[in-house]
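ingest -> validate -> predict -> emit
validate: passed (alphabet ok, no gaps, 103 aa)
predict: started
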Amino acid sequence: MKDRAKYEHTQPGTLMRIILLVAILVCGSISVGGFAAGNRGLGIGLAIPSVVMLVALVLFHSLHVRVSAEMLSLRFGIGLIRKSFAVADIESAEPTRSRWYNG
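emit:
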């Protein structure tokens, strides 16, 4: 039987999505232009960061938190990066407020 969640929330990384998408589009466009103009150095030089930013976007576009009676689970993006904790191992918790620039 699947453990029912007491709390479940997905926090989208909207600002990060926008910034990375714009950066990918700009770098990708310049990279394609470099290849088209015969400048392989420029093309490759901006293609590599574009791919790295695309991977970062896929891996970290959101944070999903799930709390059940037994487990606290955290998952970023598509779920390749995840961590789970037993609720019994958590000694204390308190609500906090993060500033906007902390993400």
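Residues 5-98 form one domain.
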